[in-house]
Amino acid sequence: MSVIVLAGMIGAGKSTYTTLISNKLNSKAFYEHVDDNAILEKFYDDPKRWAFSLQIFFLNTRFRSIKEALVHRHNVLDRSIYEDALFTRINYEQGNMSEAEMTLYTDLLENMMEEIDGMPKKGPDLLIYLRGSLDTHLERIKKRGRPFEQIEGNPELLEYYKSLHSRYDGWFAEYDKSPTLVIDIDKVNLDNPGDEAFVMEQVRKALEKQKQHV
Q1: Any residues with CB less than 8 A from the CB of 42 and at least 6 apart, and which?
Q2: Structure-derived torsion over alpha carbons of residues 58, 61, 67, 69, reported in degrees to the nearest 10
Q3: Is 79 annotated as a binding residue?
Q4: Based on the structure, what is the number of domains in the chain?
Q5: Is 95 left (phi over 0), alpha (psi -120 to 50) or beta?
């Protein structure tokens, strides 16, 4: 039994990896709310109006998911609460959130993390970081085809993506809640059966190594 969380920028393929890994390990998959998120598209249209509301929405849903995941103890999450603050920090730095909103968000996040730390299982068994070039992410965002995510005619959104991408390695370097595994999405393509097998081999090795150190 294991709790695995996926991490990576928009367009990394987290949901696809979550489906693969959960199916192969016969575990439950937790997916981020996108299609039923009424705020997300509004955020892309008017970030300054909707950034705080969006981050609170995600914080709430990710908190609920990680609590349920740590109780069930056999699942895969396509994004977790651990990287949530990175998105919020960038929105604050880009002027989409006020200092008062950032302070409130930070206080709420710290309160939630304290509750997680008090649970019998305090963190995931493995975090998988899907790491790739900005071009790879942009290509996948374009292929996915959600209109509000596209950068054509929207230089501000491209700058947001650039800023987010430039900060992910720094966030990952500071992550300390669990063992980690990095998958290079510039080189790995899950459309190739051989790459599927390679990913699962890496995941199983990482989980086995984690069990040996418990």
Answers
A1: 49, 50, 54
A2: -100
A3: yes
A4: 1
A5: left
CA distance 91 to 96: 5
118 marked as part of a ligand binding site: no
Q: What is the CA radius of gyration of the chain?
A: 17
Tell me, what CATH number does 176's domain have? 3.40.50.300
55 annotated as ligand-binding: yes
Active site residue 195: no
- Whether 15 has a binding-site annotation, put simply, is yes
pLDDT digits (tens, 9 = 90+) for 57-95: 999 999 999 999 998 889 999 988 999 999 999 999 999
Residues 130 and 8 sit within 8 Å (Cβ to Cβ): yes
**What is the residue range of 106's domain?**
3-212
Per the residue annotation, which of 36, 46, 78, 125 is the catalytic one?
78
Residues 111-162 have pLDDT tens digits of 999 999 888 888 999 999 999 999 999 999 999 888 899 999 899 999 999 9
Report the DSSP beta bridge partners of residue 152. none
